[in-house]
Design a protein that fits this description.
The chain has 241 residues and is mostly helical. Helix content is 76%, strand content 0%. The two termini are 18 Å apart.
Length: 241
């Protein structure tokens, strides 16, 4: 089977599953709402960063992005649907690539729209406190936020393929994002700058004093994602459906 029919088939799977269609709107709703709330918060803190404050809704919003990436893949392992998919597309690499495209493209599109809406919503509340942000910094924050959400969705997709279970992938990622990165990470020192979420979120700051810059941080997140995808591809290639 050629690439185009495989992509069309995988896209239809996403569009026809209500649970999947609900996760990306949740990314938009949660991120925008939390950013809007952050926009009316106290701005007198000397460490106040207006760009990060405006895009801080991505912290809870990324959970929905992770859920989307995991659910797109995990739906194949329910009722042995993977057997039918691989029977229709025997070239597993082509099938997996198509699956990743239908994760990446909508996640990136929704991520960019979400970041723009969150920035606009938060700036209303921040008022003069955000006047120092340059157009370049705002554009970098919006683009970086969209790419970050896409990478996190792909990271979840790779782990789900590796574990052959969305529950296992989410049980690994969500506690990591909510507990390890925030609680243990803050106590562990500079090494945590290279965690997948910490590194990628550097792009959301106007200024940052850590080891990594904005795009270098996203590159680190991309390496984590690539490792998860390669591990998932290896598991898919080496195991019967």
């Amino acid at each position: 089977m050629h690439v185009a029919p495989v992509l069309r088939s995988e896209a239809l799977k996403v569009l026809t599953l209500r649970s999947l269609c609900g996760t990306l709107p949740a990314v938009f709703a949660v991120t925008t709402a939390f950013s809007a709330l952050a926009g009316v918060s106290e701005t007198s803190d000397p460490e106040f960063d207006p760009l990060f404050m405006a895009l801080s809704g991505v912290m809870p919003g990324q959970i929905a992005a992770v859920a989307f990436g995991a659910m797109v893949v995990s739906s194949e392992y329910q009722g042995n649907g993977i057997r039918l998919s691989l029977a229709a597309v025997p070239r597993r690499g082509r099938w997996f690539a198509a699956k990743l495209v239908v994760v990446a493209v909508p996640a990136l599109a929704v991520g960019l729209l979400t970041a723009f809406a969150a920035l606009v919503a938060a700036r209303v509340g921040l008022g003069p406190a955000a006047d120092g942000l340059t157009p370049g910094e705002q554009a970098r924050g919006v683009v970086g936020c969209g790419v970050y959400l896409m990478l996190m969705a792909l990271l979840a997709a790779g782990l789900t393929t590796l574990f052959r279970s969305g529950v296992a992938a989410l049980s690994t990622l969500i506690p990591f994002l909510l507990v390890v990165s925030f609680v243990v990470g803050d106590a562990a020192g500079g090494a945590t700058d290279f965690l997948p979420d910490k590194a990628g979120q550097v792009v959301l700051y106007e200024t940052h004093d850590g080891t990594l810059g904005p795009w270098a941080g996203l590159a680190v997140t991309a390496l984590w994602t690539a490792a998860a995808l390669l591990a998932g591809a290896w598991r898919l290639r080496g195991r019967d459906a």
